[in-house]
Amino acid sequence: MNAYRTIQETDDSIETLYEIQKSKFITHLRHVDTEEEARAFIQSMKKKYFDARHNCSAYVLGEGADKQKSNDDGEPGGTAGNPILEAIKKNELTNIVVVVTRYFGGIKLGAGGLIRAYSHAAVLGIEAATVLAMTPFQQLDVAVGYDLLATVEHWMRQHEIRSLEADYADNVSLHLLIEPAAIEHVQAELTDLTAGRASITPGDEQLIAIPAS
Fold first, then answer.
1. Radius of gyration of the chain (CA)
2. Residues 107, 152: one domain?
3. Which of 60, 151, 162, 203 could form a disulfide with 177 if both were Cys (CB 3.0 to 4.6 A apart)?
4. Same domain, 113 and 72
């Protein structure tokens, strides 16, 4: 299970606007998990902005960012789709689709100008999104008596341990989320902290979304 960066899922796409030399560049982007979702989003933008001269796009998919595609949609080759794709890659994002719609303002920007404009428009859109670091954590189930609960919870706060919702019955079952490399160390600390009275069971790994700094 590998860490990766993506953007937060939203009900609506993120929209930004960039204007240069009377041309308008409208950027839309959203989180997607499949190529079908990416293509459907691109088509929806083309339908929404049917009167625009260009709806250029790029997407990156997979935990390893192994599926990448861009489209210039009528702009000179390499001046639109690839700069959008490069903006995604420079931000180390995956499972994302970006569409930049251009309304031509009558002044030609030239190849270099187009590359800069599409790149900047894509970056503006990415900056408006909430970037998440999908990080592997292993669940560690810790069952303790109520007499030890305050001690363990204090230790968790000190070490900024993430956790899922606890279960309260005859004992308390805490479900900690620990970085896989630290599992053995945490188990040893908890055993010492509770004088061996805690029941500690390692669980499965899962990816947790953490806001990227």
1. 24
2. no
3. 162
4. yes
Distance CA 102, CA 41 (A): 17
DSSP state of 109: -
- What confidence tens digit (pLDDT) does each residue in 135-180 have? 999 999 999 999 999 999 999 999 999 999 999 999 999 999 999 9
DSSP codes, 140-162: EEEEE-HHHHHHHHHHHHHTT-E
Q: Point out the residues of the chain with pLDDT beneath 50.
A: none
Distance CA 34, CA 109 (A): 34
CB 54 within 8 A of CB 75: yes
Structural domains in the chain (count): 2
Show the tokens assigned to 70.
Answer: 């861009």
Q: Which residues span the domain enclosing 122?
A: 4-129
Name residues whose C-beta falls within 8 Å of residue 150's C-beta, 6 or more positions apart in sequence.
none
Dihedral sign, CA of 42, 48, 52, 53?
Answer: positive
